[in-house]
Amino acid sequence: MQIYISEEAVIKEIQEKFHTLYAYLKLEFYRKPHLKGEYSSEEDKISPDTPIENIRMRNSSGWIDISYYRTAAAIEHDFSYIFGLNAQVLRKAGTLWLETIDTDNWTLEELNNAGRSSNRHSLKFPEERNDD
Domain locations in the chain? Predict the structure, then answer.
């Protein structure tokens, strides 16, 4: 599975394509890269309405591989290396979105499944939960 990043693309378009394939994951883009094991600053988050050409560091368009077997770290690396974009994969956890800093080595499939499982568990009423 691949997403084409054109010179005319807007952040929201990339996010929607990614989220369509992985319902329990999302992509956020930031002005600055995050270091391994560190969170991205909320104040550096880029608005979904921002055109790619306004934020990318490399003038290129092309494909990015977001296949289920690729890790969050690999996706984030490719966005940076190919397009000069600082991306962060987030996973759904109940009603929250968590940055994958501790699970960057998980595949997109593993992260999406963890988000699905977490979401199902949080939707149950407390008396229905089986926390054994």
Answer: 2-128
Residue 9: how many other CB atoms lie within 10 Å: 18
Q: Side-chain half-sphere of 123: how many Cα atoms within 13 Å?
A: 7
* H/E element, 117: helix 108-123
Q: Which residues does 102 contact at the CB level (< 8 Å), separation at least 6?
A: 37
Cα–chain-centroid distance for residue 123?
A: 23
Residues with Cβ within 8 Å of 124's Cβ and at least 6 positions away in sequence, in order, are none
Scan for tokens 């992985």, then name that residue.
Answer: 22
C-alpha–C-alpha distance, residues 114 and 24, integer Å: 8
Provide the pLDDT confidence category of residue 126 given band limits of 50, 70 and 90. very low
- Tens digit of each residue's pLDDT (9 = 90 or more) over 34-77: 666 666 777 789 999 999 888 877 767 899 999 999 999 999 99
Decide: helix, strand or coil at residue 3.
strand
* pLDDT 10s digits, 6-34: 888 999 999 999 999 999 999 999 987 76
The model's pTM is: 0.82
Q: Residue type at 11?
A: I
